[in-house]
Write a structure and sequence with these properties.
InterPro entries: ATP_synth_F0_gsu_mt. Its main location: mitochondrion. It is built from 4 helices and no strands. It folds into 2 domains: about 1-85, no CATH class; about 85-120. By secondary structure, the chain is mostly helical. About 75% of the residues lie in helices and about 0% in strands. The two termini are about 15 Å apart.
Length: about 120
């Protein structure tokens, strides 16, 4: 356990040295590249205004998302009614989608358990 702690401290030290050496130039380069997204003047009031605009814009998008959801659900219902006419490609895509959802579920469970595969080990 102590050796892992020492390794972690060494890696953290290396990372902090790298950031100290290259962080300022990276920051300047990043800000220069993305200056079109910076609102002038960068004040607290402007940040509060932008956060409120983002929140209420997303809130206003809920009806459109709700409508899109029901359209997608109607499409799935229509496909299910006509499942005898379903092509092999469509069934394969649906199977891959289900497999992907299951894989994300499994990955989430593994991450939730602290990256252990068989359970919790203190």
């Amino acid at each position: 356990m102590a050796s892992k702690l020492h390794q972690l401290q060494a890696k953290a030290c290396q990372a902090s040295q790298f950031v100290a050496k290259h962080g300022c130039s990276y920051y300047k380069q990043l800000m220069e590249k993305n200056k079109q997204y910076v609102v002038e003047p960068p004040t607290v009031e402007k940040c509060n205004l932008l956060s409120k605009q983002l929140f209420y814009t997303r809130l206003a998008s809920i009806p459109g998302r709700y409508e899109s959801f029901w359209k997608e659900l109607d499409c799935v219902k229509q496909l299910w009614k006509n499942r005898q006419e379903l092509k092999v490609e469509d069934a394969g895509i649906a199977a891959l989608f289900g497999l992907e959802c299951y894989a994300w579920y499994c990955a989430g469970e593994i991450v939730g358990r602290g990256f252990t595969f068989t359970g919790y080990y203190p």
